[in-house]
UniProtKB/TrEMBL annotation, chains A, B, C, D:
Cellular component, GO annotation: cytoplasm
Residues annotated as domain Gfo/Idh/MocA-like oxidoreductase N-terminal: 6-122
Source organism: Hirsutella minnesotensis 3608
UniProt similarity note: Belongs to the Gfo/Idh/MocA family.
Gene3D superfamilies for the chain: Dihydrodipicolinate Reductase, domain 2, NAD(P)-binding Rossmann-like Domain
Protein name in the entry: Gfo/Idh/MocA-like oxidoreductase N-terminal domain-containing protein
GO molecular function: nucleotide binding; oxidoreductase activity
Domain GFO/IDH/MocA-like oxidoreductase: 128-235
Gene Ontology terms: biological process: NADPH regeneration
InterPro entries: Gfo/Idh/MocA-like_OxRdtase_N, GFO_IDH_MocA-like_dom, NAD(P)-bd_dom_sf
Length: 328, 328, 328, 328
């Protein structure tokens, strides 16, 4: 049998389980050989769902990295340990697929990137699942073919900052950032300086704008509608959210359901991600996305957060360097 | 025959013609008795399309106001003369339906309102056509019934500032305003300090946010999609723009057409507007919208424009008074 | 003022009222001068809604036809008297717009057509509202331009038999007819030899097929979806029924409403019909549809009904002559 | 490792390849151990795509059945050999998943069923992929919960006869059958007594009707729209065909693409089918669909074909016995 990528899964929480099962069952060229969790309940689950299929269980992350013949790790633990675990895996010469974000701390993000740059033979990817979704890819390909002229404006969810980099180009530099938020349903968020609905605008050098919306109130389910507006046309992704192809006609009208959460919308994108990461590792192909972008996405997110909390416009010069004052 | 409202049309340009014909043909309780235009070409059109149906033509606005038995004027001239003509009509004791905006100058807007307040027996309305559109009315009624909880966020076109006042309530007060713009297709706009794509956010006191988008690049036609997001649900208006109910299935996919312009989308709303204005005049009923809102819409538009050009966040206190600095 | 068509309305039931008001208020070149109803309650309505606007009321149809200066009659009475009233009006030299059907009896239909042929200067039209609907017209125009190749198959409601003649061409000749029905909700219909759901197929000479569906169970409202399938494409009309452009997003999904009845769907088509009939009369232009078609639609309907009740296939030769047996 | 189902694939044509790969890569509890093809080109493909992953290749079907430890066969060969191969596999005590149809000959279909009845410990399934599609399942579940009252009418593609049995119940008995066809684009089909567009109606005992449409002219791609109409509501499946969630807004309108073929629409249903068949075999659970239905679907299809060619209505008594004459 041709070589398969021996991979270990770190973290078996909600998303970690999904990564483990995707590599176990839906990634033909990978072999899930090990899994780590410090959590007793998750270990019980793993004893039933992973161990019988030849997956060795560990309660020590570093020991798992010593698993014989291991090639790669998929990291799906808590955000706070993503970066440290990614660096430890690289130091053991392992490829890394890490859940986003690398870290919410920009300096720590940059350490991961630096470590990865020192080991260019390793494939290190921070997985932004939308990049693997068939609809977003179709939209991206249409923009590349010039079908909407130059894309100059995107309207999307704040979870999609990475999409902006994809659609506008990885070299894009933010110019100014504004944000506003409200506490519509959770007034208690005030003591955490947080909001339950927020919007932000990022203007980029070169004449492009991104608009982000974020809400904790989507009663009808997962939506994630995206618009990419170009000089000669527009693309929309998911402007009619639906869980499947059924419409129910009843005395009150016609109703369709919506996926309850992001995994209902993006399940197949995660499977695609596992397969493409595996192929890149096995065949030493370029990864489908750059690690640097994961830092830039956090950077933009941090600027939006600061603009939101301070009520000031944040500005950057053409090299991306933060400017001291929000005054012109 | 029951009393009909004798009305005169001022201005016979693109929109003025439509108002004149709507009052002539599609407003049963009104009678178009006079029309004014200073333009020779427009007069030629009026000789064929209005005069034969009993409409007296004038090339002097003030003389038209003296037309025997006249009750009301619909003003569809150039924006620069809206306010003056509205005031002159009121001074002749005539009801006024004025195209928006009253003026782009806030002080002049306020003069119109002041004049109207002095003559409370007159019906003076600045027509925002979306308020008369069946879909927006349905959306508004659903919000009034609490079907989406409290509406807290709207996403719409900048032409729709008035809709914000309608959906959030006429007494709402802006708190802070941000805006960003680009020149994507017309770099020459720089010398006019203008943009071809712009976005803005208005945060209101009381925890509500409006997001506006404005573009000169809608290749596919008129869109005007609106979202009203509430604490317990969401309403969208026109998220699938279409000119009629036809879908064309062809080898490249399935295509539907979009109205070419705002009149393709809102024609029936203008007819509804004519009829409701007429009824309010004849039966001394309250107008469907307050004149003050027309001022507030201009005020918010001006703040967006200032934020756009200066790159500063504009702030207001809880009484709506402009604050001096954009600093917190 | 230019000449207007003086028209009288016969019948002020549900549809009659609508015709009367459309000619009174929404047909600028027509003048509703008279109305007839034998019903006391309808007359009360007319006293409030028609008489004050200069409409003379009659309780005798023949007397109404003598109304001074009358040019035309719109007949919206009970189906059983359509034909007789149409003939009487023609005999008084009046143009006639008659609600469909002319009659459910084929011979009587043909008498109306014969009478109309004797008076070619009169405009006599049996109004099939779908022909005046903007969406159907767009679909028709697209087929005429060859955008779906040759149209060879239509799928529609049984109320739409006339549409088949329009899309396939007025000269089309039926070849064979099959139909099946059930009593899903009203078993008592058996004693009337009737059904509450029925489907039928009409094959035409020249290689075209129409499929019709008819149900009394459309819980969600008016639908009237039509498909026109051509050799190189397809057109659909109203495959996503909706009453307006609003979508309501709620915890159970996304819901849109549907018009409650055919008038909710076709109101503007009736207005268009009034205006086009008026123009044809005033300017002696060809009517937008042939009177013969009204007979052919009844003929096809009768064949479907016979096929439904007898369970036999009905056959016609290439001249449209009924064949004796359903055997090949 | 827990027991996995050792399965062999017969036939590596277009659909056979897909079955083989689905069992190899996307059916975790199955192990593709062998594959058979008599075709040299297909064998070349298998040498690259199957053999390296431990799949033994055979050019003799009967020899493949002797593969050590084999539990099951998936048959994706030409229709003419489906039945014989299914019977041979059963005789070797193997579970069988057979592509549809079992045979186009009713007697041969019945032989397969008879053989399967003699060996009740074997799982023998004729795969109708729509039964495994998430949207059809959702529609089915909604009908089971009574959300549209009793389902009484279905409108679907002729490929979907099996769906009728599913939605109306496996015990349903046809009552009468009508069909009509045309040769719209391929007049040469006349010599084969065949048509390129055909429609048929099947009325069932108990008051239910199915309408089927079949065309070789779907220029825009795969459609497979289904409607299930109940006494209190309606369900539609795929009334807005689309290949993904992208809409392209351009100067000609708004366009979405459609899957090019049935596999573009039903790929995941085939994966689901593989997994459910595997689970039923391993755990001796009931199969998700009865083998008898495969015969009944062919029977109804044959009646439609006969009605189409003869122009007669075909009738059955309440036991499903064919009646001699089409007369009442």
């Amino acid at each position: 049998m041709p070589q398969r990528l021996k991979i270990a899964a770190a973290g078996l929480g909600r998303m970690g389980k999904r990564h483990a099962l995707n590599f176990l069952n839906r990634t033909p060229r990978a072999e899930l050989v090990a899994a780590f969790t410090p959590d007793a309940k998750e270990r019980e689950w793993a004893k039933t769902n992973l161990e019988p299929y030849g997956v060795t269980l560990y309660d020590d992350y570093l020991k798992m990295l010593e698993h014989p013949g291991l090639n790669a790790v998929v990291i799906g633990t808590a955000t706070t340990v993503h970066a440290e675990e990614a660096i430890q895996a690289m130091q053991k010469n392992l490829h890394v697929l890490c859940e986003k974000p690398l870290s919410t701390n920009l300096d720590i993000c940059r350490q991961v990137v630096a470590e990865a740059k020192r080991r260019p033979h390793l494939k290190v990817m921070c997985g932004f699942s939308r990049r693997f979704d068939a609809s977003y890819r179709d939209a991206f390909n249409k923009t590349q073919k010039g079908q909407i002229g130059r894309g100059v404006f995107v309207d999307m969810s704040v979870h999609d900052i990475d999409l902006t980099l994809w659609f506008f180009g990885d070299d894009i530099v933010p110019k100014s950032v504004s944000a506003h938020g409200i506490r519509a349903v959770q007034p208690a968020l005030e003591k955490y300086n947080d909001f339950d609905n927020a919007v932000g605008i990022v203007e980029f050098w070169g004449g492009k704008i991104a608009y982000y919306y974020c809400s904790r109130m989507m009663a009808h389910g997962q939506e994630d509608t995206t618009e990419i507006i170009g000089t000669e046309g527009k693309l929309s992704v998911n402007c009619n959210p639906q869980i499947n192809l059924v419409n129910h006609y009843h005395p009150e009208g016609i109703t369709r359901k919506v996926p309850a959460d992001y995994y209902g919308r993006f399940e197949m994108a995660f499977v695609q991600e596992s397969n493409e990461f595996t192929e890149a590792c096995l065949e030493n192909k370029p990864l489908p996305m750059k690690l640097d972008n994961a830092v830039k996405a956090v950077e933009i997110g941090a600027a939006l957060q600061e603009a939101l909390v301070t009520g000031r416009q944040i500005r950057f010069d053409e090299t991306g360097k933060r400017q001291k004052t929000s005054r012109l």
